[in-house]
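Q: Hi! Curious about what Rieske 2Fe-2S domain-containing protein looks like structurally. Here's the sequence.
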Amino acid sequence: MMTAKATPTAEDILATGLRNRWYAVYPSHLVGPGEMKRLVRLGEGWLLFREPDGTPHMIADRCPHRGARLSLGQHLGDRIACEYHGVQVDGTGTVVSVPGMPGCALEGKRAVKTLPLREEAGAVFAYFGDDLHPEPVEFTLPDRLADPETSHFLNYVEWRTPWRFYIDNVLDPMHGAFLHRKSHSMAEGESTARFRIRETDRGFFFEKTDQRGVNFDWVQFARTGLDWVDLEIPYAAFAGPGGPFGIVGTATPITATESAVFHWRTRRVQGWERDVWRFLYRTTIEERHWVVLEQDRRMLEVMPPDADTGENLYQHDLGVVRIRRMFRAEAEQQAAALAEAAAAKAAARTGGRAAS
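A: Let's find out. The predicted structure is below.
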């Protein structure tokens, strides 16, 4: 985990997550009105809390007085009182009261970092900008989640694996024919294939050239302020009426070796078919989907931290290679810009001292 004062390197950023984008941080229903939850996201500690009316806030889990964890304090409705000395901080990061010394200079000061939030599709999303990009970029939900005719369920897990490994796993459709070959939805199709990359205006598709609509035959990677993946798997008749089963996924780094994984299980159904699908999902299908997720988790969690180095890749891995190059290039750009800004700031300080 990088220190607060250090200028992050490209490796730091790759390990704990690219900045200047939105991330899903927590399922909405797990933090109710008047509740709070400590979270670690992108290698830093945060406090997610709701006011009694349900308004969410996400602030750094660090009291501006002595650095104690605000998450150990008391929820006072629109503010949190630090347990150490009672300093009260509201959802804007402003110190609203210092009970031990009323009227001191700390009161009224916006002294705690906060994150812009959006709440959509059953999840809280936060914008993580670096020092050069504090204002949030435009955020658009993935297509399936924005479609009012598509029904969805959010599945949330935390895995002891780097977030990059999750992305690699999804950009590798061929693993479905092997790791998930006994799955209720991925038992069909060929175990050999050729793949291609098809560019879009917001990302790319990685897809089989010789099979479609049989197994895990394609995946889309897209950037809409949030980085997400999308795929479709055909359903057997027992799953009820409706079209293919869709999955929208995204991973949020917790630390360099832990990830928060969000999957929305979707189906485009309306009317009575929607009701049947939701009933079947909860009573029959959801348990089977957790089995598939467990297969991925078991595989990824035992891979060594350097598993994505020294590999012997082949044609099936074109999607993995593409996404890794994209992420590394962006991490290097972000690190270089921050280093340049830090150097310019240091030079300005040095020049100011010399002039005086």
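A: A fun detail: The chain has two domains: 15-128, 143-325.
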